[in-house]
Amino acid sequence: MKMLLGVQRALRQNVSHQLLIRKASFLDQFCKDADNNKDKTDKPDKSVELTLENAFKLYNLDDEPTDYVTLKRSEAVKLYTDMQTVRRMENACAELYRQKVIRGFCHLYAGQEACCAGMWAAMRPEDTVITSYRSHGWTYLMGGSVYEIMAELAQKQTGCSRGKGGSMHTYAKNFFGGNGIVGSQVPLGAGVGLAHAYRCRDAVSFTLYGDGAANQGQLFESFNLACLWKLPVVFVCENNKYGMGTSANRAACNPNYYTRGDYIPGIWVNGMDVLAVRSATEFCIDRAKTCGPLVMELETYRYYGHSMSDPGTSYRKREEIEQVRKTNDPITRFKTLCLNCKLLTEEDFKLL
């Protein structure tokens, strides 16, 4: 609660009194909701065995991630809490952007939470991440506080980049950012993998990019060197179906991004299933350490527009967005799974 109250104080600076009253009421509720986002149930850590369905497709791979996973109650709480925190933070960002507390570019991650939460659940402390400008969720999971992230978006000195980076340039330990240029982070991620290999580190570089950046030439240059030198890099394509306002099918001759590494093996993952993402990430870590790079495509969906200046409905119908929210939301489907296998109850979720 103290952390989020700090966000409130930071955002109140240099704001007119009339706007302050409106924004304070919103932030008070945000702080209250986020403070309740903890495991207060204090129950035994039981586990269940689950079978993943339609979770993976393979390209040039002899082995594959396991379809049979064990989910502990404590793990379920952590996964749900991580996804909910990222969702609420992004929704708060949208509200503060509309109120002009946050200005400039702002790209939101809502709808894609299973990607970052599932990967983070499988990663080790020594593993590294670099991604594009849709970076708020990763900054939080890699150790940045909500306070630092929100303060950065509001251009305050207490932000994770001292207010100078804004939405697209946020950082944390072993998290090499948010990067504002489309695809520019991919060769940097390969370079981080080279550093791991050169220094004999037992670490993997997760290099994330979107379906739009998948058509950049520098991506294939990075593939070439990573494969040539057998670098411990996992190239992760977060395919949210749209590069700005262009659908993947209109921009790519081959929209099966996990197959586009050619000489690099690939795996397609249901990016709306947090357990599938976790299982695939565990597999990729083990393989990248011994055999070199992989391409992992996470098929997901973004609810907001490309950025806050994009309404997101000029190139897709509102009905499409609502259909995904209704039938395939990553948080809702995980909650339903936990309820069906009796790992958590409705009362437990109310307490989280």
Automatic annotation (TrEMBL):
Keywords: Oxidoreductase, Pyruvate, Thiamine pyrophosphate, Transit peptide. Its EC number is 1.2.4.1. GO terms for biological process: pyruvate decarboxylation to acetyl-CoA. It is an enzyme of class 1 (oxidoreductase). It comes from Glossina fuscipes. This is pyruvate dehydrogenase (acetyl-transferring). The gene is LOC119644732. InterPro entries: DH_E1, PDH_E1_Alpha_Subunit, THDP-binding. PANTHER family: PYRUVATE DEHYDROGENASE E1 COMPONENT SUBUNIT ALPHA, PYRUVATE DEHYDROGENASE E1 COMPONENT, ALPHA SUBUNIT BACTERIAL AND ORGANELLAR. GO terms for molecular function: pyruvate dehydrogenase (acetyl-transferring) activity. Residues 82-348 form the Dehydrogenase E1 component domain. Pfam families: E1_dh. Its cofactor is thiamine diphosphate. Signal peptide: none annotated.
